[in-house]
Amino acid sequence: MEDNKMKEETVSEETAETQNAADNKEMKKLEEKLAKAEADLAAMNDKYLRMIAEYDNYRKRSVKEKEGAYADAYGDAISAILPVIDNLERALMFSDGEALTEGVRMTLKQFADTMSRLGVSAYGERGEEFDPNIHNAIMQVEDGELDENKIAEVLQKGYRKGDKIIRHAMVKVCC
Predict the structure, then answer these.
(1) CATH number at residue 148
(2) Which candidate in 53, 80, 93, 159 could, as Cys together with 166 as Cys, close a disulfide (CB 3.0–4.6 Å)?
(3) Residue 71 domain-assigned (yes or no)
(4) How far apart are the first and last CA of the chain?
């Protein structure tokens, strides 16, 4: 009987060890599945975050392109008007008749008011500091009244809307 008890205990121990081994295998499989699921979740989360960032970049780029297109179209329209102003300014310099002079002055004032309402401002005056970013120097001259790198004469005014230069001022610069 003791022999049977020992056999039963041995069989019980073997069965318990076999059960523990099976449980350990099952546990490892479940841990591997869990690790794989966590890795898949992390990958999907990363993909989601990248997609959100990509959409945000697209939205910002679209807004910037739209504003740029508007600014370019606006600048092109104003550029088309500028030669009229230039011709009126030239006519004003060379007119003889008082009525013609007054008419040109009134027209020029009207254009200046219109440009001002559109947010366009003229720049480039004698004595200003020369800035190559906004002025186009076509000549260098000596002028006893002005210091070096100052504008001696404005041949064509520059125009800008806000920070955008529509047309650079054409100037003579003191050397």
Answers:
(1) 2.30.22.10
(2) 159
(3) yes
(4) 124
C-alpha 171/C-alpha 124 separation (Å) is 8
Residue 119 pLDDT grade (very low, low, confident, very high; cuts 50, 70, 90)? confident
Q: Are residues 125 and 173 in the same domain?
A: yes
Q: Please say whether the beta carbons of 156 and 146 come within 8 A.
A: no
Rg (CA), the chain: 41
pTM of the predicted protein model: 0.52
Going by C-alpha positions, the residue among 68, 80, 172, 62 that lies closest to residue 120 is 80
- Is 73 a residue whose pLDDT tops 90? no
Tokens 């027209």 belong to: 107
Q: Is 172 helix (H, G, I), strand (E, B) or coil?
A: strand
Mean pLDDT across the chain, nearest whole number?
86
Q: How many domains does the chain have?
A: 2
What Å distances lie between residue 94 and 11, 27, 42, 109, CA to CA?
123, 100, 78, 17
